[in-house]
Amino acid sequence: MSSTSETLESDEREESDAYIRIRGLRKTFSRGTVVAVDDFDLEVDEDEFAVFLGPSGCGKTTTLRCISGLEIPDEGEVVIDGEDVTFAKPKDRDLAFVFQNITLFPHMSVRENMRFGLDMKTNMSKAEKNQRVEETAELLGIEGMLDRAPSALSGGQQQRVSIGRAMVMEPTAFLLDEPFANLDANLRDRMQTEIKRLQRRLGKSMIFVTHDQEEAMTLGDKIVIMDDAEIQQVGTPYEIYNEPTNEFVARFIGSPSTNMFESTIRRDGEDVWLVTDEFEFALPAEHAAKVSDYEGTPVTFGIRPEYMHVVEAGDGIFDADIDVKELHGEHDAIYFTAGEFAFTVTEPQGTVRDIESTKGVDFDISKVWIFGPEGERLL
After folding, report:
1. Residue 176: CB partners within 8 Å, gap ≥ 6?
2. From CA 119, how far away is CA 146, in angstroms rounded?
């Protein structure tokens, strides 16, 4: 009896550790014919920065709206700080929602915009409201703009005001739906740094939606990869990049993206070979044992461009023709074709100079991933 009791107490204790807890979330539209989110489970700690990442239409924003109360799920629960808020109104969830499109009142000053929520929902004195607005503005670096109109501010400054309007309410957590999508690249980079620094300073949960993998990997303590209404993988940026759980994640994360080659498994005595239409190679013994049962089964092997290398023709695992070379900062991305395969190799800038020729391609076999017929990772 005591063992069961201890187990229950342990389960409750584990659940209470997560500030935001989502269980079995499902949301459909068009009378159930369109599934926007399905079987979504997630825990976000109180001081954690979680990022929902995936292609357009995968369910990121719908999930965020279910957490905020702007959408009511068909199934599942949303628990915040131990309280089930699945059917609570947005105003009763004590959450701040920052939208992609900046929504400031043009006829109000920055100060009035930031004070608006306090005016609507609190009984604070005017002096108390102004003090909180000024403290927040100083934190965001816009203290000298409080008496300006929003139209007199840049896009980044307007977004700071939008975030500040949420901050003055002192919410328990922040939800941000692609808030930097409309900013130019340099400003977006600066805002990413600022929002990360701000989250660390506030010690609040933040859930951030984006389709930009670089933005996600820069910001997130926890990355939630979504596709086709479902979670594909949850992990740290390093886990997501280095240990993708399936083919979708391996393809989606990385720029240039992971090279994928259709192939089959062939056994030759004790050796296990990966065979494509253009080339074949033997797997290391420790890897071969994991996939030997898939002999004759169509599989896909993937390898990131940085683990492939350009050598002289005839010296690598196979030969291929260079199509294009692009400068990517410190590295060049070199695009090849070999038969019907198109793939990319990255090399230090200027390493490959003669691009109008056939080259050999080598790679680190220990860095190969193998995915089964359903996209599941086998190796």
Report:
1. 97, 98, 195, 206, 207, 208, 209
2. 16
The burial class, CB within 10 Å (0-12 / 13-18 / 19+), for 54 is buried
Q: 70 in helix, strand or coil?
A: coil
What is the reported pTM?
0.89
The predicted pLDDT at position 265 comes to: 94
pLDDT digits (tens, 9 = 90+) for 82-127: 999 999 999 899 999 988 877 899 999 999 999 998 998 888 999 9
pLDDT digits (tens, 9 = 90+) for 150-198: 999 988 889 889 989 988 988 999 999 998 887 888 888 888 888 898 8
CA angle 376/378/379 to nearest 5° reads 130
Residue 89: both structure tokens together: 């109104």
Output the CA–CA distances (angstroms, integers) from residue 26 to 19, 69, 146, 282, in the order listed.
Answer: 20, 14, 42, 44
Q: Rounded to 5 degrees, what are φ and ψ at 361?
A: -125, 125
Q: Are 219 and 51 a contacting pair, CB within 8 Å?
A: yes
Residue with tokens 């038969």: 339
- Give φ, ψ of 170 to 5 degrees: 50, 60
The structural domains of the chain, ordered by start, are 15-251 (3.40.50.300), 256-371 (2.40.50.140)
Please give the angle made by the CA atoms of 210, 68 and 207, to the nearest 5 degrees: 35
Burial of 330 (0-12, 13-18, 19+ CB in 10 A): exposed
